DNA sequence: ACAACATACAACCGAATGGTTGTATGTTGG
DNA sequence: CCAACATACAACCATTCGGTTGTATGTTGT
């Protein structure tokens, strides 16, 4: 079963990852916490644009922010990354099930067709 | 290093996965080949809309089509799914490297800061 | 041969995306 | 205290997205 909320979450996660700037930001914040301005300094776009990317990642749950003085430190959430990986594993299992059914069919009755 | 082409491919893969209808189509075609019309019959939207979703998945390399008479049979490509999974694994490795550095730092010199 | 079916694709539309600039609001170091 | 910094957010814009309908082109069964 795919609930509405889990589909919403999957949409948000994959969408967040579907932008190279956001993937790069995620890579950086998984390695260590960065303030939003430290991140913004790395890219050839406005501060506001980078801030929006960070917000997309945050809404998807791929990073969290904590205040540290006047800075907002962003850290990557590896569990969210793993949850995406597990969605892909589930897809692989669907494929394996298909292969298993074909193998069983061939073993039991090579002439049958579906 | 992240080449331009690999980033383009990653963009296309994650974008293709960032829509629940496309994820559902992918699930079906990983389990068994479906004609475009067989897929279209499953969703409450026009044939053309489903066809576009199939085209997005195909351009991303997540499925391939082969002609069978007047039908076009779509099959999921599990290798493409695995390639996405490996991108996520790479992100997890970035995170593990960070943790390893912290552990090493604490073990060698608890007072030092970066 | 030809009617029915399967697919492809163009044109269009409203909503969302990814960027911009400008403005407001906190926080802090000296 | 206050100037400078860090962040947030609104408004705007061009492009892309996800859907529609309509039309063209293949393929096949009878």
Structure description:
The structure is a homodimer of 114-residue chains. Chain A has helices spanning 4-17, 20-31, 36-40, 47-60, 78-108; strands at residues 34-35, 63-68, 71-76. Chain A is α+β, with helices and mostly antiparallel strands. In chain A, strands 1-3-2 form a 3-stranded antiparallel sheet. In chain A, α1 (4-17) runs antiparallel to α4 (47-60) and α2 (20-31) crosses α4 (47-60). The radius of gyration of chain A is 20 Å and the shape is elongated. The A-B interface holds A 2, 7, 10-11, 14-15, 17-20, 23-24, 26-27, 30-32, 76, 78, 81-82, 84-85, 88-89, 91-92, 94-95, 97-98 and B 2, 7, 10-11, 14-15, 17-20, 23-24, 26-27, 30-32, 76, 78, 81-82, 84-85, 88-89, 91-92, 94-95, 97-98. The structure holds a DNA duplex (30 and 30 nucleotides).
Structure, briefly:
The structure is a homodimer of 114-residue chains. The first copy, chain A, contains five helices and three strands, in the order ααβααββα.
Walk me through the topology:
The structure is a homodimer of 114-residue chains.
Chain A: H1 4-17, H2 20-31, E1 34-35, H3 36-40, H4 47-60, E2 63-68, E3 71-76, H5 78-108
Antiparallel strand pairs in A: 1-3, 2-3
Helix pairs in contact in A: 1-4, 2-4
The first copy, chain A, binds a DNA duplex (30 and 30 nucleotides) through residues 15, 19, 21, 35-37, 45-49, 51-53, 55-56, 69-72.
Which key phrases capture this entry?
114 residues; alpha+beta; 5 helices; 67% helix; DNA-binding
Largest sheet of chain A: 3 strands, antiparallel
Shape of chain A: elongated
Distance between the termini of chain A: 25 Å
Which range best describes the helical content of chain A: under 10%, 10-25%, 25-40%, 40-55%, 55-70% or over 70%? 55-70%
Instruction: Note the run of SSEs of chain A as H and E.
Output: HHEHHEEH
Spans of chain A with pLDDT under 50 lasting ≥5 residues? none
């Amino acid at each position: 079963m795919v609930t509405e909320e889990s589909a919403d979450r999957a949409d948000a996660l994959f969408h967040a990852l579907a932008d190279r700037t956001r993937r790069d930001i995620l890579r950086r914040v998984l390695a260590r916490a960065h303030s939003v301005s430290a991140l913004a300094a790395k890219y050839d776009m406005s501060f506001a644009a980078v801030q929006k990317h960070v917000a997309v990642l945050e809404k998807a749950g791929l990073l969290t922010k904590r205040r540290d003085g006047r800075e907002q430190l962003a850290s990557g959430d590896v569990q969210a990354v793993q949850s995406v990986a597990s969605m892909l594993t589930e897809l692989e299992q669907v494929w394996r099930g298909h292969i298993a059914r074909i193998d069983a069919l061939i073993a039991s009755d090579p002439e049958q067709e579906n």
